[in-house]
């Protein structure tokens, strides 16, 4: 009973803490809410008219929504991977890094589920995919698998974060026997959500661009580049704006590990490109469309090369110890690799998979205004969730905000991103 | 894995199981969903309707009565929605003579008329590819948008593509909710009231046979074909996938599909693969046939051949 009462107070105090903030905080939250409103308005229009307001058609039946979904599954998976080096190298703020990674994963997963919801033609029938209530075509359909693993992963992360914060809030030590197995479980779960998402495409023999055995490894390798990139920037911001202490060497170690995964990611991409272009079968056309254009259609070409060049540049910046330990070049590298993977695992994966279509037709897809507005709304929702969680979590992690203190300290209010 | 399942399993989900589930979901949810999706007309019954294969005989009758009422209100016509099951001992097969087809696209339009497709934008279940004679069947040299004064064009041949009614359909395998399946007579069908519109099947189909209702299907009342089948040509809602069903509403009553009937060159052959004396078996016996994209092992019941 006492726990329940404490938990209720934990919820109300959390709500109170996220409602209070400085001007910058309100401005940021207001900006996100505005984006969400724009996205919601665009989505209402889409509900009314149908998906015809997007630029997707029968030839390119998935587009911007599913591209973003795929990229964000990678972010959700990779956020957890930072937990591994934290444990291996026994970094001081292990708990904090774990909580941050899991909160990032939760936000990314909320965006993933949002992108799936806006992509389906009959959202009123969402209950058809709920196990036992509807009729889930499991184990045959990879999408059924994906629904299960994504939701389990979301639950797992949500539970661990809530539990750790609740313990911090009630000034108790968390039960290590409970948390450690769950955190360790979240690591193979992270690998599995991205693998299953890769298999979603991988299993389609009709689409040679996706039907490659190294698709899942490529997914994982690229996710291990982009996910930590977000966290590296986040850790720097947090230690500047809050009392959270994160050692330089922890950040540089992550950067070093990223250099290896980037190299591996480039190698896998090269291996795929070599196989397709050198053997030169008719399956080459999808790579041609992506890298060089086909029959005069070159929409993707600048993006594809931008992705490759950004990936190469980031790899060099992270490989050379001097640029890896320089804050300016390190952060440039983070932005470059993030951009590179966003293109590669978003539109660069979905569109050439569907173009030319199965009957050789080339339909040039570019997202419509509605698609961009809806996507902005979903990204804003994810950022908002993350901001609010961070707002409450940081003072709790630092022990500044607990059940006995009740109030955040007046003298040093936590700043926000 | 993709064995056809009975359309109406004996009371597999009679009153007990689904009834409580339905009550659990409740009418309030239906109203909320209707408001959320902007489908003001979404009724509680429609919202709560279960997968067609799980409905009892009585429930199927109720659903059909409801649909016929809806169509009457919408089109002012008595649309008959049949539920004719597969005929025992029949597996339908199709063969198309590439040396006869002249690319006139009469099949395309007969199909649209027969199957109540949206007219604007027009959904076409048959796509006719114009190929270069020098290239043979090469999709990188295929043109779907040919539009000359007269067909056939010099140096070209024509290859109509529609659902190949695979024995191992990749589309039914990937559907996350089991809204599409292969019937006992080999026809791959969609439950338009169960499909969630995720379009995974469209990504999986190697033949571009699946089409999505991107907007509200636009079917003028005077063009509605009132002879329909639940799993076939009944008018579809927006946001769901549809496909060729070998004109299930005709073929299960012993008629030819509309495309076979209209073809002016006799390029299209249709019949029962299990009947030794059928025309389709004659073609398989006496002509050299091939299957489109054979390497994908989808095992179509749709064959192409060169008749002359």
Give me a quick take on this structure.
The complex is a heterodimer of chains A (about 425) and B (about 300). Chain A has about 425 residues and is an all-alpha fold.
Describe this structure in words.
The complex is a heterodimer of chains A (417) and B (308). Chain A has 417 residues and is an all-alpha fold. Chain A has helices at 2-19, 23-49, 64-81, 83-88, 94-119, 142-169, 176-202, 215-241, 248-279, 284-291, 301-319, 321-324, 327-345, 347-354, 369-397. Chain A starts with a helix and ends in a 20-residue tail after the last helix. Chain B is of the alpha+beta class. Chain B has nine helices and twelve strands. Chain B has helices spanning 15-37, 44-48, 57-75, 106-114, 170-174, 200-204, 248-251, 258-262, 279-286, and strands at 80-82, 92-97, 127-132, 156-161, 180-182, 188-190, 211-212, 227-229, 241-242, 268-272, 289-290, 302-305. The chains are: A mainly alpha (417), B alpha+beta (308). The interface between A and B is large, with 54 and 61 residues.
Task: Offer a few descriptive terms.
heterodimer, A: 417 residues, mainly alpha, Formate dehydrogenase/DMSO reductase fold, 71% helix, disordered C terminus, B: 308 residues, alpha+beta, Alpha-Beta Plaits, four-stranded mixed beta sheet
Task: Explain the layout of strands and helices.
The complex is a heterodimer of chains A (417) and B (308).
Chain A: H1 2-19, H2 23-49, H3 64-81, H4 83-88, H5 94-119, H6 142-169, H7 176-202, H8 215-241, H9 248-279, H10 284-291, H11 301-319, H12 321-324, H13 327-345, H14 347-354, H15 369-397
Helix pairs in contact in A: 1-15, 2-15, 3-5, 3-7, 3-8, 3-14, 5-6, 5-15, 6-7, 7-8, 8-9, 8-13, 9-11, 10-14, 11-13, 13-14
Chain B: H1 15-37, H2 44-48, H3 57-75, E1 80-82, E2 92-97, H4 106-114, E3 127-132, E4 156-161, H5 170-174, E5 180-182, E6 188-190, H6 200-204, E7 211-212, E8 227-229, E9 241-242, H7 248-251, H8 258-262, E10 268-272, H9 279-286, E11 289-290, E12 302-305
Parallel strand pairs in B: 1-8, 2-12
Antiparallel strand pairs in B: 2-10, 3-4, 5-6, 7-9, 11-12
């Amino acid at each position: 009973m006492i726990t329940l009462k404490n938990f209720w107070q934990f919820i109300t105090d959390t709500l109170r803490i996220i409602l209070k903030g400085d001007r910058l905080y309100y401005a940021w939250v207001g900006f996100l809410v505005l984006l969400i409103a724009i996205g919601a308005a665009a989505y209402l229009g889409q509900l009314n008219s149908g998906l015809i307001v997007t630029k997707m058609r029968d030839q390119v039946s998935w587009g911007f929504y599913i591209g973003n979904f795929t990229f964000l599954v990678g972010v959700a998976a990779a956020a957890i991977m930072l937990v591994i080096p934290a444990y291996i190298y026994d970094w001081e703020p292990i708990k904090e890094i774990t909580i941050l990674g899991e909160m990032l994963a939760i936000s990314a997963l909320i965006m993933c589920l949002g992108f799936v919801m806006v992509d389906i033609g009959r959202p009123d029938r969402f209950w058809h995919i709920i196990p036992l209530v509807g009729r889930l075509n499991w184990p045959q359909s990879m999408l059924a698998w994906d629904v299960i693993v994504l939701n389990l992963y979301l639950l797992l992360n949500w539970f661990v974060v809530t539990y750790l914060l609740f313990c911090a809030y009630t000034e108790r030590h968390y039960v290590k026997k409970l948390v450690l197995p769950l955190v360790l479980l979240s690591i193979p779960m992270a690998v599995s959500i991205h693998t299953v998402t890769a298999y979603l495409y991988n299993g389609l023999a009709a689409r040679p661009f996706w039907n490659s055995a190294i698709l899942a490894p490529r997914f994982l390798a690229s996710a291990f580049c982009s996910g930590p990139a977000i966290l590296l920037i986040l850790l720097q911001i947090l230690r500047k704006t809050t009392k959270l202490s994160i050692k330089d060497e922890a950040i540089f170690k992550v950067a070093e590990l990223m250099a290896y995964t980037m190299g591996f990611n480039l190698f896998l991409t090269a291996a795929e490109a070599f196989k397709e272009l050198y053997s030169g079968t008719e399956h080459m056309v999808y790579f041609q469309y992506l890298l060089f254009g086909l029959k005069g259609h070159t929409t993707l070409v600048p993006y594809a090369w931008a992705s490759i060049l950004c990936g190469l540049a980031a790899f060099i910046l992270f490989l050379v110890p001097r640029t890896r330990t320089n804050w300016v070049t390190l952060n440039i590298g983070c932005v470059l690799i993030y951009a590179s993977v966003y293109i590669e695992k978003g539109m660069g994966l979905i569109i050439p998979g569907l173009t030319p279509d199965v009957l050789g037709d080339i339909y040039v897809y570019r997202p419509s205004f509605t698609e961009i507005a809806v996507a902005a709304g979903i990204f804003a929702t994810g950022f908002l969730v993350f901001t609010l969680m961070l707002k409450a979590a940081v003072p709790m992690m630092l022990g500044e905000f607990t059940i006995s203190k009740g109030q955040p300290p007046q003298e040093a209010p936590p700043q926000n991103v | 894995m993709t064995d056809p399942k009975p359309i109406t399993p004996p009371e597999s989900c009679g009153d007990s199981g689904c009834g409580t589930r339905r009550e659990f979901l409740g009418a309030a949810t239906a109203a909320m969903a209707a408001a959320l999706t902007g489908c003001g007309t979404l009724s509680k019954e429609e919202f709560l309707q279960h997968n067609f294969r799980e409905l009892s005989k009585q429930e199927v009758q109720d659903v059909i009565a409801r649909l016929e009422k809806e169509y009457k209100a919408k089109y002012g016509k008595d649309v008959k929605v049949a539920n004719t099951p597969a005929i025992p001992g029949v597996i339908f097969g199709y063969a198309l003579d590439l040396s006869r087809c002249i690319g006139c696209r009469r099949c395309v339009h007969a199909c649209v008329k027969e199957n109540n497709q949206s007219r604007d934008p027009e959904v076409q279940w048959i796509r006719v590819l114009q190929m270069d004679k020098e290239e043979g069947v090469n999709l990188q040299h295929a043109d779907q948008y040919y539009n000359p004064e007269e067909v056939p064009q010099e140096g070209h041949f024509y290859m109509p593509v529609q659902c190949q009614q695979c024995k191992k359909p990749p589309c039914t395998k990937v559907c996350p909710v089991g809204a599409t399946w292969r019937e006992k007579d080999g026809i791959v069908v969609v439950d338009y009231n169960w499909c969630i519109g995720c379009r995974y099947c469209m990504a999986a189909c190697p033949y571009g046979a699946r089409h999505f209702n991107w907007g509200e299907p636009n079917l003028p009342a005077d063009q509605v074909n009132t002879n329909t089948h639940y799993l076939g040509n009944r008018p579809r809602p927006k946001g769901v996938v549809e496909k060729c069903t070998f004109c299930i509403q005709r073929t299960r009553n012993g008629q030819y599909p509309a495309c076979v009937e209209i073809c002016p060159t006799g390029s299209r052959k249709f019949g029962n693969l299990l009947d030794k004396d059928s025309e389709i078996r004659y073609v398989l016996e006496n002509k050299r046939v091939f299957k489109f994209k054979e390497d994908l092992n989808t095992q179509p019941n749709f064959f192409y051949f060169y008749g002359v």
